[in-house]
Specification:
2 strands, two-stranded parallel ribbon, Endonuclease III, domain 1, 10 helices, single chain
Amino acid sequence: MSELPGPGTPDPHDGTCPWATGSPAMRAYHDAEWGVPSRDDHYLFEFLVLEGAQAGLSWSTILNRRAGYARAFHDFDVEAVAAMGDDELEALMGDEGIIRNRLKIFGTRKNALAFIGVQEEFGSFADYLWSWVDGEPVVRPADATGFTATTELSDRLSKDLKKRGFTFVGSTIIYAYLQAVGVVDDHVATCPARRR
């Protein structure tokens, strides 16, 4: 006999997006953050760092290291990350709180510099990002089945970001990023978090 969820415990069978029911941390992230539209440059930079770190790994691996990334990268202060020297970045190769991949670590600084360039050109990274969808989230059709890893939007945005000097911004990473920061609302039709 299966046990019923306790008070305050989300029911894993309540129609929530299936990927979010694997652990309490994944469910909490899904319920509080995933797909919530953000226009906060600090948050947008944080998720650019985290999604880039995820390349080739599971989201739960990165989510479990989120605090480690915050410590390693100055609480995602884009100016501080852009100013990190090679020695400071190299020292992160010994930090067990993050994924110790040299390309990803050094890519974080490169992305901070590119992020600042976008802010200078557009006034904010949020203005740049949301201009791709005319300021309104793209909502998953209610009758959609299955999930996609990329879209025409993520393909175009990925190409533009690469031209602007970003790294670890392939179309799959960018589509996950768009979902995470709410530019795309990809909650399944039955999900209680859909279009909150």
